[in-house]
Amino acid sequence: PVEDHQHIPPARRVALEDDDTTTEDNSQFRWVSISATERVEVVCTTDRRRQVEPSVYEGGGALWECAVDLARYLEREAPGLARGRRVLELGCGRAVPGLWALRRGAAELALCDYNEDVVRNVAAPAVARALRTTRGDDAPPPTVVVRLYAGAWGENLSALLEADFSGGAFDVVLSAETTYRDDVARGLAASIARHLVRPAGVAYVATKRYYFGTGGGTTALVEALDARRFDVRTVWTADDGASNVRDILRIAWRRRRP
Q1: Residues 202-213: what's their mean pLDDT?
Q2: Under 8 Å CB-to-CB from 121, ≥6 apart: which residues?
Q3: What pLDDT does residue 57 have?
Q4: φ and ψ at 178, to 5 degrees?
Q5: Which of 147, 123, 251, 116 is nearest to 197 (CA)?
């Protein structure tokens, strides 16, 4: 989902509309378990466009396993990561990590996906419902700011983020299943470099080790990130010996030596 000015329309804002008839209809939502006690609600829809088509459909309608991996890992290992912070999810799709961040007290949240219909019909209703129904200690701050965007990563999207979030620097950047081609991995690396706040920002990316048939994967992202600028660590791996290996990477700015 990287900008190609010849084929891709500019990135745009998508309104977050709180439609009572949608957000209160339980049949339109399903629970995704994050831990023994935590779960988030996502839109219950069957994604019939399973085949990713570059510059047409980038897979955001599916519920990808790495998105659930990431939310579960953060709930277990860094439950306070989002509280009071500015969070960006790149390639959000059903926004499982973003919804987790909202439940865990993010002060500001930006959700971005390539396809506008995915943002409008999948991510937005789940966010609106979460804002209406989350209560108790995990309720979002009363002044929480949530903005949604559709379009490719690149100058247009970055300009919107920088206009809407006072410079576009985020404390936390989250992304899942967004390294499935080499060009997509490079675009993700560039977006992290542009929008991760210095010096203490942290990004977490959940990805398959390798995407058979399309390339990309863990190595593609690591190679796209400038090793002189970033410290990249694999903090979690799932390898059952039968299915594709899955990783979670932690990305932070390297500390400058005195």
Answers
A1: 94
A2: 43, 45
A3: 45
A4: -125, 30
A5: 251
